[in-house]
Write a structure and sequence with these properties.
Elements lengths: L49 H13 L8 H14 L6 H36 L6 H9 L1 H8 L6 H17 L13
């Protein structure tokens, strides 16, 4: 009681943090105080080797599939891997590399649904005669989205997905493959 100075303190070394991020600390009574069971953690610092975190960021970046992202973004990711996959001398350098790779992976993950719907449109187009006006109408309807996609600068991916989805039924109906008279269920 009284001030912070009167609170017994202890330093815990080699405390292991589990994979789930939880810390388990066992305590036992060494002093005769009645409130010995009250524990105050002033600060907890967990250290993970920076090279292990960087290796994970590199592996995540390498796991981005070329078929799931715009070609320009995929090239940026490959260049970033080559740039940042090395040893550094300071924690800040590691953190900068990890942050850059993780940001690119996050961006790539955002493009997955848009890539999927654009690929669906390409599949429909493959079954429509080249001179069919449905192809030109589809390409015109998604021109802005496709241009932004190719440049990897789509600002609002959910909105872009809706634009492409709205243009798909007419293209799907124009297919010459079996079942082409059916429209896409949205």
């Amino acid at each position: 009681r009284g001030g912070e100075e009167s609170i017994p303190t202890a330093t815990l070394d080699n405390v292991v943090v589990g994979n789930d991020g939880k810390i388990k600390i066992g305590l036992y009574k060494e002093v005769g105080l009645t409130n010995w069971h009250i524990v105050q953690l002033k600060s907890v610092t967990a250290k993970v080797p920076a090279d292990a975190l960087l290796a994970k960021a590199v592996a995540d970046a390498q796991g981005v599939a070329e078929s799931d992202v715009p070609a320009k973004l995929y090239s940026e990711i490959q260049e970033a891997i080559e740039t940042y996959d090395k040893e550094y001398s300071t924690a800040d350098e590691y953190q900068t590399a990890i942050n850059a790779l993780n940001a690119l992976v996050d961006k790539a993950n955002g493009y997955v649904p848009l890539t999927a719907v654009l690929n669906e449109g390409d599949q429909y187009k493959a079954n429509v005669p080249a001179e069919d006006p449905a192809i030109a109408a589809y390409d015109a309807a998604i021109a802005d989205v496709k241009g932004a996609y190719d440049d990897a600068v789509v600002a609002d991916i959910p909105a872009a997905v809706k634009v492409v989805e709205a243009a798909l039924p007419a293209l799907a109906k124009a297919q010459t493959a079996p079942g082409s008279d059916m429209t896409r269920a949205i």
